[in-house]
Amino acid sequence: MITLDDFTLLSIGSRNNFDGTVARCPACGRNGVILRPDGAPHYCVHVEESEILCDGMRTDPTEWCRIPE
Q: Residue 20 — left, alpha, or beta (φ > 0 → left; ψ -120 to 50 → alpha)?
């Protein structure tokens, strides 16, 4: 089963249980969830695709912006 999560449709300040709080993207101005992985560039996910597999769940961003540092 594949699920598509579109954070651009959520209002700023909405909370996503897995990813975080919806905010305005500093790069493009659309709504998204800002992720700050350790040792990697920060980015804002606007749309992500999730798939439930037999050994867990795979989540891939399909629309995102790299946030300039």
A: left
